């Protein structure tokens, strides 16, 4: 590395420019390596395949083949990137499902992204320390380990935020879906037909909830029992508070009784919960505004209001 910087320094005759030039070369080399690996593994850009696609027009088949090839690649590296802890893999898989990633390869992709970020953080830290020659070896090691630890925990933080955001969106949209389900059931539709109708109507409001409800109908149609499909719905979405409602729906479907009144009561209850949550968030605004007021507005106000008096007092004592 020092030899390359020395060569570049002999060309540009400036050590700082030589370091920046080396950093640019390293960045472009890493980017080229990443793109080459993607082309190698996914075979995304193939002129012959694209030409055949333009002739035949089979875009769906090509995308399916590329997706299956990528899934095979992820499956082959799964044992090398995923942890050995069954509990950790179980918790991460649940978070991925709550965030909307339900494919089997999502877990492998998540840990592969973590490994890539850690490697990028390692090389970025080592290259950045070249611009600070006064740092000791111990400081370089500490900063590098801190960057790698941050890169390792960053995907977990982002995944938790995505899961919480999706669960909140599903929870806010569910009372409206219950109202539609009540109307459809009282109109004479069966529960499965009403569920399919609700999944279609709720799509513009909440695409995530529409997808989850459509998934319930698809699973029931292929032979999965209704109670199993509904319990899997709770597991995928993370809406634990729906357990009582799912039990009543299962009992009503099994006995063939009407569930309109029960669904209406649950819809009102969930709507009240949504309103209470909104009121709770609104009540917290005053407390949350204290920090930006103190850190941003108060110093400027204090400087303008008290600053001239302080300057006058200092001048008076100075004389």
From TrEMBL:
Keyword Cell membrane: yes
Domain Type II secretion system protein GspF as annotated: residue spans: 178-306
GO CC terms in record: plasma membrane
Keywords, ordered alphabetically: Cell membrane, Membrane, Transmembrane, Transmembrane helix
Topological type in the membrane: Multi-pass membrane protein
One family name in Pfam for this protein: T2SSF
Transmembrane segments: 20-41, 111-132, 138-159, 290-314
Locations listed in the record: Cell membrane
Record-linked PANTHER family: INTEGRAL MEMBRANE PROTEIN-RELATED (PTHR35007), PILUS ASSEMBLE PROTEIN (PTHR35007:SF2)
Name used for this protein in its record: Type II/IV secretion system protein TadC, associated with Flp pilus assembly
Protein source organism: Photobacterium marinum
